[in-house]
Structure formats: structure tokens, C-alpha cells
Amino acid sequence: APTAAEVLELADGVDLLVHDGPGDAALLVAQEAGARILALSGHRPEESDETLDRVLLDVRRTATRLGVDEVLVASEGTTVSFEGGGR
Fold first, then answer.
1. What DSSP line would sit under the chain, residue for residue?
2. Which pLDDT score is estimated for 85?
3. pLDDT, tens digit, 9 for 90 and up, residues 43-78
4. Is 68 exposed, middle or buried (0-12, 13-18, 19+ CB in 10 A)?
5. Which of 16, 34, 35, 52 is 20 to 30 A removed from 82 (C-alpha atoms)?
6. CA 23 to CA 47: how far, in whole Å?
7. What gap in Å lies between CA 24 and CA 66, rounded to an integer?
8. What is the pTM of this model?
9. What is the pLDDT, as a whole number, of residue 84?
């Protein structure tokens, strides 16, 4: 498994970070990397849609404080567009 330093080095400066860990860990990586958008992934069939919606809302609230512009849940067919070509 990669170390935290290796993960941050790989993610440094990305516009979009796709992360399959818990929301709080994903947010910290996104913040340290300077990511504009965080896409949470990870299949959790044992959790209800309502629970996942609550988790997403909590992560979005924290993201605003940490400077991450957008948080979404990655799923099949999700697309992200970067107009303007940069930050």
C-alpha cells in the first residue's frame, strides 16, 4: 500500500480527485493536493440511500471550509467537465 506521502505526491495539483476512502480522509487528501473537485467512490451496498445522502451532505459542508469547490459521488456514467482549461 502506498504511504501518505506517496498518495499526496501523486495527487498534487489535480483538478479532480477520485477517492474511495472515508469522506474525512478523502477531504484531507483533496485539501492537501489542492483539488477543486472531490469524487467519492466505493461501493457500499449495506448502507441506505438516505445514509449516503447524509454522508455526502456532511462531506460537502466540511469541503466548503477546506477550500474544495465541489464534492460528488462517482458512479457509472458520471462526467465532469473543466471549461476554461485551468484554475
1. ---HHHHHHHHTT-SEEEE-S-HHHHHHHHHHHT-SEEEE----TTS-HHHHHHHHHHHHHHHHHHT--EEEE--TT-----TTS--
2. 56
3. 677 888 888 888 889 999 999 899 999 999 887 888
4. buried
5. 52
6. 14
7. 11
8. 0.81
9. 65
Task: State the Cα angle at 20 between 14 and 25, rounded to 5°.
Answer: 75
Contact present, 41 and 78 (Cβ < 8 Å): no
In one-letter notation, the amino acid at residue 11 is A
- The single-letter code of the amino acid at 86 is G
